[in-house]
Amino acid sequence: MRNRIAPRSGTAFELRKGQRLRVTDPQGEQVSDMLAFSMADVRENLSSGRSLDYASKLFLSTGDVLYSNRSRPMLEIVEDTVGRHDFLLTPCSADTFRIIYGDDSPHHGCQGNFERALAPYGITADDIPVAFNIFMNVAIDGESGAIAVKPPRSRAGDHIAFVALMDLVVALTACSAPQSNNGSFKPIDWEIL
Prior knowledge:
This protein is mostly beta strands and 193 residues long. Helix content is 12%, strand content 32%.
């Protein structure tokens, strides 16, 4: 069954070992931040540093594994119609909107959506790591290290699919940052296969 995340909101759910999760961009150019935590111990969570280190590259796609902070495989990417995702930038937050966009009354962002969705699992704000930012297009200058957030390369119907390598609590958002989504906010679809 396909589920829809409304623009600028989020959800959390359980994903069992061996199940597949497909995340789809139904309208195009919409980022979805994703977190994963071990169901056995939520202190074990998705690790950008470990995953990028073990893959020896910045852009992960089909065949790559996402590791935990304890160096255990959590998810493997098994399908990817876009091929460009970000694993460097933190979930957007009220502070993101205040500092980067100059908002006086900022939205709570993906950070706030994660906090709300993950609270029933005992996961707090300080437990939220860097997210795997599905469809987010971050350009990196190889000489200076400068980064620039570009419009997502995803088009309507593009998707990425993962297989769970352990029992997980997964959280997803329909990202709230204007720069990440080419200036507009759209839904994200997900389904467990």
